[in-house]
Amino acid sequence: MSDTRERPLSIAMLALGGQGGGVLTGWLVETAEANGYIAQSTYVAGVAQRTGATVYCVEMFPRESARVAGRLPVFTPYPIPGDVDLVIAGEMAETGRAIEKGFVTPNITTLIASSHRVYSMPEKEALGDGIMDLARVAEVADKASKQFVCFDMQQAADDSGSIISSVLLGAIAASGALPFSRDAFEETIRRTGKAIDTNLRGFAAGHDGVATPPAAPDDPIIKAVPAGANGERLAQRIRDELPEAVREVALHGALRALDYQDSKYADEYLDRLSAFAGVDADGHGYALTTEVARQLALQMCYEDTIRVADLKIRSERFERIRQQVNAGSDKPVRIVEYVHPRIEEFCDTLPTFLATPILRSSALRKGLSPLFRKGRNITTTSISGFLLLYLVSRLRPLRRFTYRYGTQRKHINDWLDRVTAAAVDDYDYGLAVAQCIEIVRGYGETYERGLARYRATVDPNKGGRSADAVRRLHRAALADEKGVVFEEALASTGVGS
User: Fold this and answer.
1) Which end of the chain is more exposed for a tag (fewer CB within 10 A), N or C?
2) Over the stretch 180-206, which tens digit does the pLDDT of each residue have?
């Protein structure tokens, strides 16, 4: 394939650790050099803790064009904004960052991105919902690029037993953004001599994902139903009892409750939601019920020591960590957890009749406090560490008898009553009250602080006298951990705290 160019063909790739960005870069360079091009690759490493990806830059120029011009091309060590032909994003948030960096240009850039997410530390640390709006990112990406190719390439990699870099290579080949045939890319994979069959399967999955994108199921909740009788039963109940607008969110909530506790707990979630849907006004598209479905699942599946222990010993977590550190199955991995439970978290896990006297007695709290002054390191990959966390996670059947379960249940019932009462007077007001429950999260001091701010937000005698007032206080409550902004906002209502 001939190509006469006046400037190098420029590629920018934003890849996270463990996604094989270096491998994909090598494949691109080797394919170019094997097909009559001069190529160069560079990279700038991203910072730690997932606040930014490694940026790879690949440039290529036809040898024949260089011969005719009588000089070698001048390559850049970093992608030049406004002059990038192909942008590859290994995760959806990196798509947004590529656009912010100016790498994506209309009528020039083909943008290839995986739609899956790997949440960054700022997203995880946000007091409220800090998750990036992916729909907005996709909308901007489509407008900002000449061609936008996007699907869940990590899932395609998992389904094919491959790695995401090979799926990305297949998507690149199918997009037509580079002047090389499918055979040329596949031959490069074969020349490497490493995991040839696995990488070819991933390549085919990526190529097919662009050529024949998967059709959406007729029933949007089908894709979320896991195998097993409970999943199917919950899905059927949702179809029978809830309006279509609520079903997808409700199913995710029910499955979360099932994973968190048991099938009875999932049914309790749906009981509450069905009762609420019965008083919602369909003229609003069941927006209130949908919001209640989302927030109710989060409140019912609160984080306690039992849940934390359960998540830390799951096999998929160990596998994810192995992938993140590029450790093969033959390499040992040591995982050390730092835990610092306070007396409040300890009491949350106790039966109500034991926790109540401890929390109410300053003498008992003082006497027990030395046990909770220092944090501890637990090696999860050791027999003793794993066994300790396993035993804590096995307390799940006893959760219904714990102090935190009882207080959380009362708190949820109070919230639902408030939402119902508010919606009777003003639908938008009820929606605001439903949304602001996200202020309440975590455990110990974090939970108590969030609960106090939530109550002040929805209390008509303090702040919450209208939808606008509730939303303003809601934003203020999540603005800073110390609550300075919230106290100022509360005082500005003219009522005070």
Assistant:
1) N
2) 999 999 999 999 878 889 999 999 999
